[in-house]
C-alpha cells in the first residue's frame, strides 16, 4: 500500500525515528524499511513532519504481528497518545470501558487509559478524568527530544500542539531572552532553553510551575530557566523591556494580557499570539487587539498567519507571529 514515509540516511535513522516517535508521527501499522541505502519511516501525518525532513510516498509492508485496538473491537477507536497513556472522549461508559480494555489488551505500549470527564475549566484550564486503566493520571511525555512529567488532573497539556511548539522553537536563536506568559509544565520553555535561550516561564497554576521546574532539571536546562507562579500581569513590571520573544498561548483570553506583553517586550521582539476565532475572520481580531495595545510605541508587523488546528465547528485555533519594533 502507498503510504507517506520519511526518507533519511541510515546513519541518521535512529535519531530521526526517535524524534518522530516523540511527536507521535510514526505509523505503527507499517514496517520501517531500508532500500538502496535509504531508510524509510512510515508516518501518520506528512503535513506535521518537520520541514527539514524529506517525505516521499512508497509501497510499504504492513505489520502482521501487532494486534491493534481496532483488531479487537471491530472498529477503529479515536484516542490520543500521551506518553504511555491513551486519552479517549466517550460519553457512553460501556463503550469507554470496551475501548479501554482493547487498548490495554493490544500490542500498543500503553498502560494507562483516561476518559475525559469534563471540559477544560477554571483559571488553570484543567479537566476531570475517569481512570479506566493504570494507576494514576501522571504521565511522562516525550516530544522532539524533550521529556515532560505532568499530571493531567492538575495541569493543562495538549499533545496536539507538538508540531506547533516545534515550529516556534526552531525560530529561536542562541542567547535570546524568551518569555512564556502562560508556561504550564514547560512545553515551550524547555525546548526554547535547549536552543540556548534564557527563558522566563510564568503560570498561575502552582502545580504546573512545580512541574516546570522539575522538567527544566529533567532536560538539563534549569540554569537557563526561571519559573514564576503568579499572574503575569503582576510580574510584567519586573521584566520591562526584557524579552526578545514572547509566547502567549492562552487562546480564549490572550487579548486581556496584551498590555503586560507590551511592557515585557524589548526594542525588537517577536510575539507568538494564539487565538480562537470564527473561520470568517480568524486573524483580524487578534491583529487589531495587538495593534491597539502596541501602537504607536511599537511598529507592528504581522510576519506569519497560521491556522494551528480546527477547534470547533466554524472556529479555528490560529497563531499570529508578530514583530514589535520600538
From TrEMBL:
This is Class I SAM-dependent methyltransferase family protein. GO terms for biological process: tRNA N1-guanine methylation. It comes from the Archaea. The keyword S-adenosyl-L-methionine applies. It holds the Pfam family Trm5_N. Keywords: Cytoplasm, Methyltransferase, S-adenosyl-L-methionine, Transferase, tRNA processing. It comes from Salinadaptatus halalkaliphilus. One of its GO terms (molecular function) is tRNA methyltransferase activity. GO terms for cellular component: cytoplasm. Residues 79-326 form the SAM-dependent methyltransferase TRM5/TYW2-type domain.
Amino acid at each position: 500500500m502507498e503510504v507517506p514515509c520519511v526518507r533519511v540516511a541510515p546513519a541518521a535513522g535512529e535519531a530521526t525515528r526517535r524524534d518522530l516517535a516523540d511527536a507521535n508521527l510514526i505509523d505503527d501499522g507499517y514496517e520501517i524499511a531500508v532500500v538502496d541505502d535509504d531508510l524509510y519511516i512510515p508516518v501518520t501525518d506528512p503535513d506535521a513532519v518537520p520541514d527539514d525532513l524529506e517525505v516521499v510516498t512508497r509501497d510499504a509492508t504492513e505489520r502482521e504481528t501487532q494486534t491493534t485496538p481496532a483488531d479487537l473491537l471491530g472498529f477503529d477507536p479515536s484516542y490520543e497518545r500521551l506518553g504511555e497513556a491513551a486519552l479517549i472522549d466517550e460519553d457512553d461508559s460501556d463503550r469507554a470501558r470496551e475501548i479501554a480494555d482493547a487498548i490495554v489488551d493490544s500490542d500498543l505500549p500503553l498502560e494507562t487509559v483516561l476518559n475525559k470527564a469534563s471540559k477544560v475549566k477554571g483559571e488553570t484550564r484543567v479537566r476531570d478524568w475517569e481512570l479506566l486503566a493504570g494507576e494514576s493520571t501522571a504521565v511522562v511525555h516525550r516530544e522532539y527530544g524533550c521529556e515532560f512529567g505532568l499530571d493531567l488532573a492538575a495541569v493543562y497539556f495538549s499533545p496536539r500542539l507538538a508540531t506547533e511548539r516545534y515550529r516556534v522553537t526552531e525560530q529561536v536563536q542562541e542567547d535570546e531572552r524568551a518569555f512564556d506568559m502562560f508556561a504550564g509544565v514547560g512545553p515551550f520553555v524547555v525546548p526554547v532553553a535547549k536552543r540556548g535561550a534564557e527563558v522566563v516561564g510564568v503560570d498561575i497554576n502552582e502545580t504546573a510551575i512545580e512541574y516546570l521546574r522539575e522538567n527544566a532539571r529533567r532536560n538539563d536546562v534549569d540554569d537557563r530557566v526561571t519559573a514564576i507562579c503568579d499572574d503575569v500581569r503582576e510580574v510584567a513590571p519586573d521584566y520591562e523591556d526584557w524579552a526578545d520573544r514572547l509566547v502567549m498561548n492562552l487562546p480564549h483570553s490572550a487579548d486581556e494580557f496584551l498590555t503586560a506583553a507590551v511592557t515585557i517586550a524589548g526594542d525588537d521582539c517577536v510575539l507568538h499570539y494564539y487565538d480562537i476565532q470564527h473561520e470568517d475572520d480568524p486573524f483580524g481580531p487578534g491583529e487589531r487587539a495587538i495593534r491597539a495595545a502596541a501602537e504607536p510605541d511599537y511598529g507592528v508587523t504581522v510576519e506569519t498567519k497560521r491556522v494551528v488546528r480546527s477547534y470547533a465547528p466554524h472556529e479555528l485555533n490560529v497563531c499570529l507571529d508578530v514583530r514589535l519594533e520600538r
